[in-house]
């Protein structure tokens, strides 16, 4: 993964909070970003349990100097809640549709890496 950092890329763990990722795995990955899963984001403004979990994730990430990204924001209320918890970045249909041109560029880069390797 350090090769990607040398190229100026960051490392992100996606769908954080949706699976069995534990803190030891998080530490060994040494990510620059954690992307909070949309299952935690959905209706977070109405669910104190979700809010408590996300606040803890954000606090932990801040203490480790990891940036947070909330995925799947679809309402103004979700956005307001997440910003109040200190989330660094946001994404979702409430903000805007996916950028398919960027996905095409990423796909081309992946194909080049597969053809020529990393180095």
Automatic annotation (TrEMBL):
The keyword Hydrolase applies. Residues 1-112 form the EAL domain. InterPro entries: Cyclic-di-GMP_PDE-like (IPR050706), EAL_dom (IPR001633), EAL_sf (IPR035919). PROSITE patterns: EAL (PS50883). It is an enzyme of class 3 (hydrolase). Keywords: Hydrolase. GO terms for molecular function: cyclic-guanylate-specific phosphodiesterase activity. It holds the Pfam family EAL. Its EC number is 3.1.4.52. PANTHER family: CYCLIC DI-GMP PHOSPHODIESTERASE PDEF, SIGNALING PROTEIN. This is Cyclic di-GMP phosphodiesterase CdpA. It comes from bioreactor metagenome.
């Amino acid at each position: 993964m350090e090769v990607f950092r040398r190229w100026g890329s960051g490392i992100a763990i996606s769908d954080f909070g949706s699976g069995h990722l534990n803190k030891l795995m998080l530490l060994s990955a040494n990510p620059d970003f954690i992307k909070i899963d949309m299952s935690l984001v959905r209706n977070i403004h109405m669910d104190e349990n979700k809010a408590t979990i996300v606040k803890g994730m954000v606090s932990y990430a801040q203490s480790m100097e990891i940036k947070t990204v909330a995925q799947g924001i679809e309402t103004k209320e979700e956005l307001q809640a997440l910003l109040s918890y200190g989330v660094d970045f946001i994404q979702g249909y409430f903000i805007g549709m996916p950028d398919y041109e960027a996905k095409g560029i990423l796909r081309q880069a992946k194909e080049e890496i597969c053809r020529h390797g990393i180095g």
